[in-house]
Amino acid sequence: MTERERGIINIGASHQTASVAARERFALSGERGRLLCLELAAHPDVLEVAALATCNRSELYLVAEDVERVTQVAVAAFARLADAAPEELDTMLAVRPHAAGIDHLMRTAGGIESVVPGEAQIQGQVRIAHQAAQEAGTCGPVLDRLFRSAVQVGKRARTETQIGDGRASVGSVAAELVAGRIGDLGGARIAVLGAGKMGGLAARSLADRGARRIDIANRSVERAAKVAAEVGFESVGVDIKELERELATCDAVVSSTNAPHAVITKAKLEKVIAARGGRPLVLVDLAVPRDIEPECGELPGVDVYDLDDLERVVSQTFEVRGDAVAAVEALAAEATEEFTRWLRAEDATPAIRDMRERAEAVRSAELKRFMARMVHLAPEDRRRIEQLTRSIVNRLLHAPTVRLREAAERAVAAGEPGAAEHE
Asked: If you placed Cys at 251, which of 188, 268, 363, 389 could pair as Cys (CB 3.0 to 4.6 Å)?
C-alpha cells in the first residue's frame, strides 16, 4: 500500500495549457468557483482549498492529506465542470505539487505568468481568491499564509523591479489591436461592454490612443456612467439593453462582462448588418466564458478576436522585460523557499497535527450524532452544516496553530533535535 503524502497542490488550466475555448469550460468565477471549493472541502483528504479565477486561468490551490488521491479528485471535479472524461484533460490541466505549486502562485502574483508580463490586475485577483476562500470557510492556516506571501511578492515585484513599467494590461493590448485595425481612433465610435476593472482599463487605454466617443454599456447604467465620466471626452454610459443599437453604429466593440453566456451572438448581429451599410466591425472578446460567438466572424465585414489572438499580439508587439522577469523570478524563489521552510516547521510539529486530529474527531462524532437526530434534513442542508462545522473548527484552531507553528519555526532555525524530523 502506497504511503499517503501530505502537501500542497496547484491544478488548473491557463493560457499556457489550454485555448480560450477550453478554458471557458473550466471557468471558476463567482458562484461556480465557490461551490466547487465547498464540494472539494467536504472530501476527507482535502484540508483547505481556494480557487483563483481570471480571464486567463482557472486554478485550484489545495492542502491535501493525500496528494495523489486529492489530485485525482480535483481532476475529476474539473472533468465534471467541462463535461469531459478525466483522460481528455491530460493536455489542458497543469498539476504542480509541493514546491512547484507554491512557486507558481508566487510567480503568478508577481505578474510573470500573465499573458501580458507585469499586468497589475493579477495582484487584486489573488487577493480576491484569498478572501473568497476565507468567506467560504475553506481557507485554513496554510493557504492563508501562502496567499499572504504571494500578495507580498506581487507588491515587491511592482516596487523593486521594472516588471510593471509601461503599465501594460490585457485591456491595453485590446486597445492596441483596435487601433491597429481601425487606424485613427479620433473619429471612431467604440463600445465597451462591461464596466468592471477590465472594461474600465480597456476604455482608458482606448482614450489614451485617441478614442473620443466611447460608449460604456452595462446592466447598471449608473456604473456605466461613472466609468464614462472617469474616461472623459465624449464617453457616455448606456444600458446594455441598447446593445443592438450599439452594434449597428459602432466601429469596434471590446467586451468584458461576467455573463455566463454569449452576449453578442451571430443571430443578434445579423439583425443589424444591413443597417451598417457594409462598414467593417471589429469585435474584441476579453471574457471567459466568451461574450462573443466566434461564428460572428463569418458575417461580412466582421472580425472577431479573443484572448488567444491577444496573446499572439503580445508576442509580436511587446518586448519581453528580460531583466525584470529574472528579478521577479528571484523574488518568487525566495518566497517559495521561505514558505517551504515554514511549512516544514509546521509539519515537524506533532502537536499541531494532534490538535487538528482531535478537533476533527470531536467535530465528526458530534456531527454524526446530530445528523442521526435530524433525519428530515435535505442533502443540501446536510452539506451546508458539514461545511459550517469545518469552518468553525478552522477558525477556532487558527490562533493556537499560529502560535505552535511560530514555536516550531524558532526550533527549526535554532537546529533543535527533532525539529526537522520530516526532512
From this structure: 188
